[in-house]
Mitochondrial inner membrane protease ATP23 (Enhydra lutris kenyoni), 246 residues
Amino acid sequence: MARAADERPPGPAAEEQLQQQHVACQVLPERLAEGKPGQGFLSSFFTNNQKCQLMLLKTLETNPYVKLLLDAMKHSGCAVNRERHFSCEDCNGNVSGGFDASTSQIVLCQNNIRNQAHMNRVVTHELIHAFDHCRAHVNWFTDVRHLACSEVRAANLSGDCSLINEIFRLHFGLKQHHQTCVRDRAILSILAVRNISKEVAQKAVDEVFESCFNDHEPFGRIPHNKTYARYAHRDFQNRDRYYSNI
Ligand SMILES: [Zn+2]
């Protein structure tokens, strides 16, 4: 998602990142508004915010994709704190969430995240960007290929392109549908935050696709569903245990 530069105060180490307000993300198909026309702005704000906080809590405590990513972040020296690193906010358009590299904060769009499954996917997607930000020096704003790589990984590993999501999008039936979905979503995510042509975004994604699509860290595999994610989490914990015993 894209945010105006003045919406968020710059982070402490962020001089060069002043114009780098948002690395962001997932653009979902427009959803039907479920607004309650009779409610005032404040009451709907609090309701959405409370719902967002509760769903976030449940995601952090129960979702296997997220639990693995939180462990991996901690293991890489970037422990995630719910109050410090997540922010439930109203967002423009139909954006669901974003990763703010300047503050290392994940923004959750409380007005657009509609249910627990959606929250699970958004948090997973954004945590993959946070993981990439933690493990490598990512030039989010100076090299579009870095952004493209993280978007490919997020689309590939977060469940954004899992079969059930694809069926709902009526794209089912293509043999290479997972790769196609990952590529398309990565391109859409780049276009949501960068003022570049579709051709430039496609070229960036194609240049990095093979290596980034095959980079499954920290999952070790493509977690097509929660069962795979649970196995991946178990393997990660064992891997951690193994290395810590050396
Ligand atoms: Zn993204």
About this structure: Residues 1-24, 26-39 have pLDDT under 50 and may be disordered. Residues 21-27+41-226 form one domain. Residues 24-26, 125, 129, 151, 154, 189 surround zinc ion (CB under 6 Å).
